[in-house]
Backbone:
């Protein structure tokens, strides 16, 4: 296991080293300062404002900002739905795919506009290259940019000294795309191609194999999509098996780089935050709380997966490591990643709202599989989605400030601003809405015969885990899955001939994703607006500090407490049972 | 509101063209110029014809003259991929491992008398994630080497050398796990010791 721990340690060290440079760069982008890309991108940026008829620098209050965001997202949704419905007449369709049923398209459109990328569809067997490029990949970019815009608006609200303006949505959108997401995607896409990720528009290749069989190799513009899929914490794979597919993730090196792409923006944003509020310690405090929760999860998955599963032991298999074999639970894992690379990925993709996978979650051991549940139960505040993670964490910060204030008997203050009834009401709504949606939707799905049609494992703890995870993942806009759970039945694969959707799962899931993405965004923007109008007072002797280890401890405690109180009973029925028993069912 | 609709409408169209058409086509163009082999799937040839991709595993149908890939939920389908989704406590998972283990021993034991179930590495009897895992563990390859040496009439040390030559190690000795590329190893066998 020593090599495995070393890989994990190196990953964490490289991530840590990237936080400051990336965070500094992003802070300069969000505050309209010159960066090294300005000479190149500046003219394009100004052209974009002219085309979009945007006056840069024109501030919006939170309502105007929210209206622009919602209108843009709605139009994006319509555009994507239209693309998914019209596959039969599209260019770049060498396989002649037709459109999937409308309910599946509803789910997929909602999935990508909300940065979830839940996959009821199987990419390589159902989608045209056009739909992948112009539909899904475009939303990979813009849904991520929307998330970043929201957190930047919230930060502006926190630091504003007067007035109610929190920035300009269109300007934030353009700058995030042009200065951050697009340049990094171009570079990483080309790097991925150099390592073996495919990038072409060819017909699928029929191969006569060495031993005389035939094999059809799927092709496509994969690298350009893979880069932004990780960078934007989107996670919708070009292929059904996502980043486990060698054409998406061919080696230990690409695995490492893709993992960095997933975490670099969410981790860097904590530094950006410190810089924008004028105190790096505030940013590091949030980073520390996230890091503790993340590293604990990595260690648990790795140890659990290295142990193997009850099913494997019952079959007489020895799962310990020996010379030339990693041992451990290799069901649903790839040899080139091994146990360590798969475990690290499992933790990274569930603390962030990425949801791309390089191993089958449903085949994780009981305890290893419980970690993704817990990470999602923390409502994606541990690094979380691009932008979305930090704004959700800031809600918990305000909650921790409020609870801390109650404990010491003073009016809660954060960075000099009083946190009052209106803010705390909005924070509570923002914090509780997602868990509430999860419990209601998974409850309905478990209790109804319609919901059980999606089950793969049957009516047992594993089946319950599938259901709970499906709605946990969709509500938190993650997109990873216990993939037996399905909303799309394709009896004569591929090409969608005779395929039908399970409307209940498709529609409930789509509604869950939309509600649990945009309602919290509105609460966050409302908080930004409320804070922007407040006067800041200098900290006094009795002000509770929010940049020391005590506060980090309090913040971690609040995150765990809210998650545990909300989800413990539900977790008992699925992952906890599976972790504790060696019985088979 | 009308301004938002106008700007939003233009934004969706322009972004779809820039990010959805120009960006991927530009990446495709550059890739095809600079990395044509990689961009088109790292295809490998033998005897003048393409026999597969070095990144995509193949089914060797249990034929004794070839190293065998890992079990696959999809039968090594290259165009419809999915996981086995067998859970940690599932009876089906136990039965599948039991079946795979029995088949593995039945295939290898005649050539490696001392082989017991406890020595069989996990990757040899569990299904991979992609269903097209191109690699097997080194331990798995070393066991199969006994069979290959007999069937191909090669000295065992020579087979082990070929295994080493086709093992993809950790990047910088650090990242990933070593794996033996089954297709490339089998191609090397065909070159070195063709079946008649």
Residues:
């Amino acid at each position: 296991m020593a090599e495995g721990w070393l890989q994990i340690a190196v990953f964490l060290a490289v991530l840590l080293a990237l936080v400051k440079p990336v965070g500094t760069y992003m802070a300069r982008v969000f505050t309209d300062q010159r960066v090294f890309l300005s000479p190149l991108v500046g003219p394009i940026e100004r052209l974009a404002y002219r085309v979009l008829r945007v006056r840069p620098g024109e501030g919006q209050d939170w309502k105007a900002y929210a209206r622009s965001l919602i209108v843009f997202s709605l139009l994006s949704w319509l555009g994507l739905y239209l693309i998914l419905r019209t596959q039969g007449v599209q260019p770049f369709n060498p396989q002649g795919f037709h459109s999937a049923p409308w309910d599946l398209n509803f789910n997929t459109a909602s999935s990508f506009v909300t940065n979830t990328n839940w996959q009821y569809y199987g990419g390589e067997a159902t989608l045209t290259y056009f739909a992948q490029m112009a539909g899904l990949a475009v939303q990979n970019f813009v849904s991520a940019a929307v998330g970043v815009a929201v957190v930047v608006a919230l930060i502006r609200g926190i630091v504003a000294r007067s007035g109610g303006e929190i920035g300009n949505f269109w300007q934030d959108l353009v700058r995030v795309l042009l200065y951050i997401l697009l340049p990094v995607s171009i570079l990483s896409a080309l790097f991925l191609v150099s390592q073996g990720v495919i990038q072409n528009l060819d017909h699928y290749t029929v191969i006569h194999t060495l031993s005389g069989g035939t094999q059809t190799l799927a092709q496509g513009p994969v690298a350009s999509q893979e880069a932004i899929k990780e960078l934007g914490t989107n996670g919708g794979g070009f292929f059904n098996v996502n980043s486990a597919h060698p054409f998406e993730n061919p080696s230990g090196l690409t695995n490492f780089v893709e993992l960095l792409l997933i975490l670099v923006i969410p981790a860097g944003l904590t530094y950006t935050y410190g810089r924008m509020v004028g105190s790096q310690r505030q940013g590091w405090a949030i980073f520390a709380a996230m890091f503790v929760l993340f590293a604990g999860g990595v260690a648990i998955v790795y140890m659990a997966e290295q142990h193997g599963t009850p099913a494997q032991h019952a079959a007489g298999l020895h799962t310990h490591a020996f010379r030339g074999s990693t041992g451990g639970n290799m069901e649903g894992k790839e040899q080139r990643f091994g146990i360590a690379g798969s475990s690290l990925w499992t933790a990274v993709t569930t603390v962030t709202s990425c949801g791309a996978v390089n191993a089958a979650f449903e085949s994780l051991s009981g305890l290893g599989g419980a970690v993704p549940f817990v990470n999602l139960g923390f409502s994606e505040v541990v690094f979380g989605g691009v932008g979305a993670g930090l704004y959700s964490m800031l809600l918990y910060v305000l909650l921790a400030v409020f609870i801390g204030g109650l404990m010491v008997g003073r009016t809660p203050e954060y960075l000099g601003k009083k946190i009052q009834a209106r803010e705390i009401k909005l924070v509570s709504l923002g914090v509780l809405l997602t868990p509430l949606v999860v419990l209601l939707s998974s409850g309905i799905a478990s209790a109804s015969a319609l919901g059980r049609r999606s089950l793969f494992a049957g009516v047992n703890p594993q089946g319950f885990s599938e259901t709970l995870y499906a709605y946990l993942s969709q509500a938190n806009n993650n997109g990873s899955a216990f993939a037996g759970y399905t909303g799309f039945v394709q009896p004569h694969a591929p090409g969608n001939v005779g395929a039908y959707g399970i409307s209940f799962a498709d529609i409930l899931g789509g509604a869950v994703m939309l509600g649990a993405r945009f309602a919290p965004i509105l609460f966050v923007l409302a908080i930004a607006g409320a804070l922007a109008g407040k006067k800041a007072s200098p900290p006094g002797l009795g002000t509770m500090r929010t940049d020391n280890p005590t506060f980090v401890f309090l913040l971690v405690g609040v995150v765990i407490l809210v998650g545990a109180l909300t989800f413990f009973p539900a977790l008992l029925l699925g992952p906890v049972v599976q972790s504790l028993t060696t019985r088979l069912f | 509101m009308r301004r938002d609709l106008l700007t939003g409408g233009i934004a969706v169209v322009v972004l779809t063209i820039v990010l959805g058409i120009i960006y991927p086509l530009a990446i495709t163009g550059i890739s095809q110029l600079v990395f044509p082999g990689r961009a088109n799937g790292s295809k490998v040839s033998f005897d003048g014809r393409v026999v597969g991709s070095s990144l995509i595993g193949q089914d060797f149908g249990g034929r004794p003259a070839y190293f065998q890939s890992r079990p696959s939920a999809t039968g090594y389908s290259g165009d419809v991929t999915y996981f086995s989704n067998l859970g940690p406590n599932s009876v089906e998972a136990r039965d599948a491992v039991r079946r795979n283990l029995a088949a593995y021993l039945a295939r290898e034991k005649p050539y490696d008398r001392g082989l017991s179930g406890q020595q069989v590495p996990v990757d040899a009897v569990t299904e991979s994630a992609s269903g097209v895992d191109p690699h097997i563990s080194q331990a798995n390859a070393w066991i199969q080497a006994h069979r290959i040496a007999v069937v191909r009439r090669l000295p065992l040390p020579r087979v082990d050398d070929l295994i080493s030559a086709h093992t993809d190690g950790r990047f910088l000795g650090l990242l990933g796990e070593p794996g033996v590329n089954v297709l490339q190893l089998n191609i090397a066998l065909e070159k070195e010791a063709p079946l008649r």
Residues 2-580 of chain A form one domain. Chain A has one domain: 2-580. The CA atoms of residues 209 and 215 of chain A lie 7 Å apart. DSSP finds 19 helices and six strands in chain A.
